[in-house]
């Protein structure tokens, strides 16, 4: 049995953050596929009582401990492994500043936009899609500016802030209707640096459930 188990599915950028972190730190882990789309598994009473009362992925299982919310899981793994860990109070606070901005403004807008545009049946209301797309693009511009003069969000070394921020950014351009790396060149270069790290894998190669069955 693997040391870590991760409840996840391939289309979830939130789960991808944790799956990627597990691979980047060289952890012994196994995915536990959650049938979000066909079975609505996260919304079932069993899932909410036995796995996560919030009805979400990811959930990281380590021994008797179960952790949810990707930022909590990333922090836990960084502390246990000593890798991608912000150094000192100032960097820790700065990491959390970017993780919160990511969760609320970057992937917090980009994730629902992609879901409603590409995965929801029927697709979302065009006015809602336009609002989410505009907010996501505005937040991406902030990140692109941040990366103009540094290789990583906090400076010279990658941290959990970078692992968090990339959650949805490797999914195919056709799922968004625009090419994020091409539209934001500093983000594109940063994504290439992340991709070059030992252990990196694409979300569709790292987690089960792709392609979706009709």
TrEMBL record:
Residues 2-85 form the GST N-terminal domain. Pfam families: GST_C_2, GST_N. It comes from the Bacteria. Gene3D superfamilies: 1.20.1050.10, Glutaredoxin. Residues 88-214 form the GST C-terminal domain. This is Glutathione S-transferase family protein.
